[in-house]
Specification:
alpha+beta, Immunoglobulin-like, six-stranded antiparallel beta sheet, flat, disordered C terminus
């Protein structure tokens, strides 16, 4: 596919996919990254993959976003299945399980038919049709995952507010999850974070009290010299230089090299959402430079899971 054809796809997609994002932004306040705490990421998949000039690169980028959107949707559907199967009354439980199975089958068929139609309308050849259909599925799965998760959240809230009912049994545990190479967990205080690790090194993203995310680099094999800066680079993007946040010198209670949220951190996370790998160069206390390479496969799903659940998970009503 030529560069002009790729540009044409980007131009058409920007117009067609803008409507749901505009509508959503009118309903939710904008924030430093995803908007509000429960705002789904509704960006244009083609814009997320900008810079991929060949058809192969563009398709690979869209395929990654598609896999992550599918993973998110399956995760939420599994959560609804657990809620439906937890009704104590056998008849009520069977009724809700049947309705949920029918809803999943019907929506899946609608997704395929609608996005096949959209691809056919917007694409001039088989390549463009396939790419447009793929982008359509990414957008629709993201929106559906948000809608279903909102439903699950409302069910949870209703259960917590009205204990002792015949409804499902509330699950108030930390909703941790594994997303390819990334995982979401909660610390002892109930704060959510996303992290990945390799070779004894760990890269963690924590919800910042001022919005956005804080960045934490830790290592179990090297004592990090927090007095020196670290260099972070996502794929072929320019290298970003960071210094540890004052007051966190040495192995702080959060562990390792801590960088509070800033515009530079927001820029880095934006690059991570579109990238494949991130390389971090840091110095140990012996003055030796160390390199840690982390996969970014699954980071988008992990961040959306993190953003959707807020900073602290809901605890049982007392």
């Amino acid at each position: 596919m030529s560069l002009s054809q790729t540009a044409r796809i980007l131009a058409i997609a920007a117009v067609f996919t803008a409507a749901p994002a505009i509508a959503a932004n009118q309903s939710y306040s904008t924030g430093p990254y995803y908007g509000s705490a429960r705002m789904p990421y509704l960006g244009d998949p083609f814009q997320e993959c900008r810079g991929r000039q060949s058809e192969l690169e563009l398709r690979a980028c869209l395929s990654r976003l598609h896999d992550e959107a599918r993973y998110d949707l399956d995760y939420v559907n599994d959560r609804l299945e657990r809620l439906a199967s937890s009704f104590q009354d056998e008849g009520v439980r069977a009724y809700h399980e049947e309705k949920l199975r029918g809803a999943r089958t019907t929506w899946s068929a609608y997704l395929d038919y609608h996005c096949d139609f959209e691809g056919a309308m917007l694409g001039d050849d088989n390549t463009e049709v396939g790419l447009q259909s793929l982008a359509c599925q990414i957008m629709m799965m993201r929106i559906q995952a948000y809608r279903l998760d909102t439903l699950a959240q409302n069910i949870d809230i209703e259960i917590v507010d009205t204990p002792g009912t015949d409804g499902p049994i509330a699950d108030v545990r930390c909703e941790q999850g594994d997303f390819r190479e990334w995982r979401v967990r909660c610390d002892a205080r109930g704060n959510y974070f996303a992290e990945t690790g390799t070779g004894g090194n760990t890269l963690r993203l924590e919800r910042s009290v001022n919005g956005g995310f804080d960045l934490v680099l830790a290592s179990s094999v090297h004592a990090i010299d927090t007095g020196r800066s670290i260099n972070v680079r996502v794929d072929s993007n320019p290298t970003l230089d960071f210094r540890t946040t004052p007051g966190y010198a040495g192995p702080s209670e959060r562990g390792g090299f801590v960088i509070d949220n800033s515009p530079a951190v927001d820029t880095l996370i934006g690059q991570m959402r579109q990238g494949g790998r991130v390389a971090v160069v840091f110095y140990d206390t012996a003055g030796q430079a160390q390199v840690a390479n982390f996969s970014l496969y699954g980071v988008t799903s992990a961040l959306e899971h993190l953003a959707d659940r807020g900073r602290v998970y809901r605890r049982p009503a007392r």
